[in-house]
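@channel sequence for tomorrow's demo:
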Amino acid sequence: MIATCSGGSFFDRDYYVDVHLPLALECWQKYGLESALAFFPRDANAPDVSIGIYKFRDEAAIHAALASSETQAVMADVPHFTDASVSRIIGFSA
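structure tokens (generated this afternoon):
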């Protein structure tokens, strides 16, 4: 799953990496989240301010995690590091 943050007036990279990604791992690991990585554009004027790559065991794991009660905690944490819009893309590699 790719989570992209676009726009907004602030984005705290340190908080995202040091607090939010570990929170996502803590909440979703039992559903099959294997890793969570952050990427940031070099261009400060880029429309996307961050890209998070959340690697799950399989498609069923993604849907189980997103349907879990823990997802509320993950999403409630977003305002602590940004006011940007968050979008998710679910993709699969062969």
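heads up for whoever presents: The chain is about 35% helix and 30% strand.
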